[in-house]
Structure formats: C-alpha cells, structure tokens
Amino acid sequence: MSTTTVLSTPDPSVFGQSVTYTATVTGITAGAPPWGDVTFAIAGGPTLGPVPLTPTGPDSGTASVTDSTLAVGSHLVTANFVNSTDATDNSFGTTIQQVNQSATTTTVTFVPPAPVCGQSVTLTASVAAVPPGSGTPTGTVTFIVSADGPTVTGALDASGNVSVTVPGLSVGTHQVAAFYNGDTNFAPSNSPLTPLTISPASSSTALVITPASPVCGEAVTLCAQVTTTPPGTCTPTGTVTFTVAGGPTLTGTLDASGLACVTTSAIPVGPHAVTATYSGDT
C-alpha cells in the first residue's frame, strides 16, 4: 500500500508569498506509472489539482503545486493520492503551513513642496508590501505633524495610497510622519520623519495719500494697505514705515484688515516722494 507525505516550501511564509506544496508517494503497489493523481486540499484556502504523479522510481513519484492566496494563520494541507487502478492503494499525507503577516513600507510626500503661510498642504502616504510578501495593504494611516500641527487619519484606497489636506500650518519647520496601522495580513510600519517648511507669504503694499494735493500746514493722512500674495492667505501683522523725503518718518500698525494709517501736518511746502515699507512679520 502506498504512503504519501507532503512538504511545503517555504514554511513559514508571509502573506502573498508563493508557496510550493510537494507530495511524495512511495510504495505504490498497483498499476503502471504515472499510477494516478494528487489533489491538495488546504484548510481555509483552495483545493489544488488534481496533478498527475511524476515517477521518480519503480514504485514512487512526486507532484507539486504552487499557491500564494492563503490568509495569515495556520492551515492544514492534505495531499490525497488517488491510484487510478486500485483504490485500496490510495493514501494521504498532511502538513501545517504557517502564514505570517507581510512586512510593509510607508512613505510620505506632500504638495506643494514649498508651501507658504496659510496655504493648505496635501499629505500623501503610500503603503506597500515588502517582498516576498505581495498584495495591497488595507486599513488606515495616521499622519502626525509636529510643532503645533494636527494629527489626521485617513483610509487607504485600492492602490494603497491615502491623502489628507492640512490647512493653516504655522511658519517654520515641521516634522511629518505617516503611521500605517496594519490589517489582518499586513504588519504596521511608519515613514521616516520628513521635514516640511512653511515659509512666510509674499505681500504687496499699496499707498494712498489724502488729500492728494494738500496745502501748507494741512493734515495729511498716509494709509498703506498690505495684502498677502496668493497662494498665501495669512493676514499680515506688524508695522509699516512711512518715509516722506524732506519730511517726517512715521510708523503705523496694521489693523485686522492689513491697513495702517498715520496723520501728519509736518510736511513742508514742495514736492515730496513718499514711500510705505512693510517690515513683515513671522
């Protein structure tokens, strides 16, 4: 009567890795080569075959199949040899195949690469299986932005990517990290810390003089409107210096709308160049 043994390689494996199952049948007593077929039944997985036995000796042979579809866990693998001539010569063998989680890598990128104050930033994480594992991870990724930034969680799409938008980060350098939280078949991982620098936004300054043609001794109001240049959206703060050639130098503080005004009666008779200089803020 025949005897069947089965071996799986590699064992253990990781999710998505190809595993070869080889049945060896010896002591066949009935029929002629190739004697019959082997079917591989995997608990919690597929049934593979039948596969014709390949003779390796006068009363022995092997049959092999390959599969990569098993979920994480322990699986009983049964190789059933069916002698096509004599059913009393049938036999089976078993083994346990252990499938572990696949390791993953997580990377993080952001757009735009050089954001300015008030500009929203889109963070994107990509999670992939580490070979020999394969497949697409599922689940969630948590983004952490240091230095007063938020913590945001998003779900991976069908390609293993997720994007979130973070508005209004403060000016300065932040460290961004993406943490993949893992799922049944894929292990957690995190990206390296990636610096994200928010720069001050550009601005423009418009000067208005009232009245436009004053007379000697008349009070003159100088107003500067400071406007943030897109894509920045921060409201300018700080001071504006008004310089009157041949006259006074005055300083005004911006209000909540970005407007600063000063009034003077100390401008002498004659033409004067007037400039308004915004000193910026953080």
From TrEMBL:
Name of protein: Ig-like domain-containing protein
Stored InterPro entries: Big_3_5 (IPR032109), Ig-like_fold (IPR013783)
Superkingdom as given in the UniProt entry: Bacteria
The species this protein was found in: Streptomyces antimycoticus
GO BP term, example: carbohydrate metabolic process
Residue ranges of domain Bacterial Ig-like in the record: 8-91, 111-198, 209-282
